[in-house]
Design a protein that fits this description.
By secondary structure, the chain is mainly α. 36% of the residues are buried. The protein is built from six helices and no strands. The C terminus is likely disordered. It has one domain: Up-down Bundle (Methane Monooxygenase Hydroxylase, Chain G, domain 1), CATH 1.20.58. Helix content is 81%, strand content 0%.
Length: 228
């Protein structure tokens, strides 16, 4: 295999890491803008999304070009195919950060309904899941990928807790709180969707590394071969 091809694979690897960093940063800044009611920061996330979209297109083009010119086999082909899937998931994650920023702009001129505790917790969990999923891809580590999938239930529980509190303790009691409560409910849903995308990445990593299909079958993560 030519050194030129290896250099191109390394370049693709670096682009994926760059896109991952942009996506993680967008999540963190979106929640920071919500906590601080910072309209300027929220708008910067929206404005930067085009840069992320452009990078996604560049990565896709590089992947297709590598396949067409080099006709890679085995692990190199799997890496490129996985890079394309990962590229798509990261772009969607960045889009969700934009959705959060847009909700921030809706409520930034109103006092926060309540101190934010669980939403930042869910945000940190989402960022951790995304980072761990990317790490599992880079290291081809199926065990690390399984950890991401097992974290998803915690994200679901946190999202439900946030949603139930905002509905039962605020909207039901005083309907006038709805314009401030509904955007927070949506933010929790968006963060949970980010966790879902991290889970999809982890499922793909497990399949690429082991050939095992765990999508829709989380029970397989804790199963052990007979005799163990």
């Amino acid at each position: 295999m030519s050194k030129h091809f290896q250099d191109e694979l390394e370049d693709l690897h670096n682009d994926i890491l760059k896109l991952s960093a942009f996506a993680e940063e967008a999540i963190a800044h979106a929640i920071e803008s919500l906590k601080d009611q910072d309209q300027e920061l929220a708008q910067s996330i929206i404005d930067r999304d085009q840069h992320i979209d452009d990078l996604e297109l560049i990565i896709d083009e590089k992947c297709l070009d590598l396949i067409a010119r080099h006709q890679p086999m085995a692990k190199d082909l799997r890496f490129i195919v996985m890079a394309m899937r990962l590229n798509s998931e990261l772009e969607r994650i960045a889009d969700i950060a934009v959705d959060i920023a847009q909700r921030v702009l809706e409520v930034a001129d109103k006092p926060l309904l309540k101190p934010l505790v669980d939403i930042p917790r869910l945000s940190l969990l989402a960022q951790n899941m995304v980072k761990t999923a990317i790490d599992s891809f880079i290291a081809r580590d199926s065990e690390l990928a399984k950890k991401v999938i097992l974290m998803d239930s915690e994200a679901d529980q946190l999202k439900r807790k946030i949603q139930e509190e905002l509905i039962n303790d605020y909207i039901v009691i005083d309907g006038a709180t709805a314009p401030r409560a509904v955007p927070l409910i949506l933010v929790a849903r968006y963060l949970e969707r980010i966790c879902d995308h991290a889970t999809y990445i982890a499922e793909d990593v497990i399949y690429i590394v082991t050939g095992e299909v765990v999508k829709h079958h989380p029970e397989r993560l804790t199963q052990h071969p007979e005799g163990q």
